[in-house]
Each structure stands twice: as structure tokens, then as C-alpha cells.
């Protein structure tokens, strides 16, 4: 049953990444894929790897969201570079 739910999460997340056009929705769908991958890892009893994945994946998702928000803010302000790099 866990294997079926994990596969369903991965499939729905993959289709969501393909279909959605908004970046934040794509990041949320990537988190859904991550949930499915953690389910696969626990199904095959690699619990130490599942613990590490469960701790690091939300942190990475938050870092990606913060990076996108900063990129979006800079894009809206249209900040010019202060120095020309040769």
C-alpha cells in the first residue's frame, strides 16, 4: 500500500510540474515528488537515508523559495549592476 501511495505522489507531482506555469506551484509539486521518494526509501527499509532525506528536503525547498522570491524582487525593481566585470 505504501508503494502505491508513493508512486501516486510521484506521478501526480511529475504531472503537476509539467502542467503548472507558475514557479511557486512547480516548487510545491516538487515537494510532492519528494514525499513520494521518501515513501519509496522507507518501503525498502533504508530508514537512515529516509531520516536524512526528510530533514534536508524541506530545508532545500525553503532555500529555493527564498531564492525565487529574491529573484522576483530584483526582477521587478530592475536593478542595474553596480560594477562592470571585465
Counted by DSSP, the helix tally is 3
Mean pLDDT: 90
**How large is the share of residues in beta strands?**
under 5%
Distance between the termini: 58 Å
What is the N-to-C order of secondary-structure elements (H for helix, E for strand)?
HHH
The major pleated sheet works out as: none
Number of strands: 0
Low-confidence stretches: none
Kindly state the percentage of residues in helix: over 70%
Radius of gyration: 17 Å
Structural class: mainly alpha
What is the approximate shape? Answer: elongated
Q: TL;DR?
A:
The chain is an all-alpha fold and 86 residues long. Helix content is 81%, strand content 0%.
Any descriptors?
single chain, 86 residues, mainly alpha, 3 helices, elongated
Amino acid at each position: 500500500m505504501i508503494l502505491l501511495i508513493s508512486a501516486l505522489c510521484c506521478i501526480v507531482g511529475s504531472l503537476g510540474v509539467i502542467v503548472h506555469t507558475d514557479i511557486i506551484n512547480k516548487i510545491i509539486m516538487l515537494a510532492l515528488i519528494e514525499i513520494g521518494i521518501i515513501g519509496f526509501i522507507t518501503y525498502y527499509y533504508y530508514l537512515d537515508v529516509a531520516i536524512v532525506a526528510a530533514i534536508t528536503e524541506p530545508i532545500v525547498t525553503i532555500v529555493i523559495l527564498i531564492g525565487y522570491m529574491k529573484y522576483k524582487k530584483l526582477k521587478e525593481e530592475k536593478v542595474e549592476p553596480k560594477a562592470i566585470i571585465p
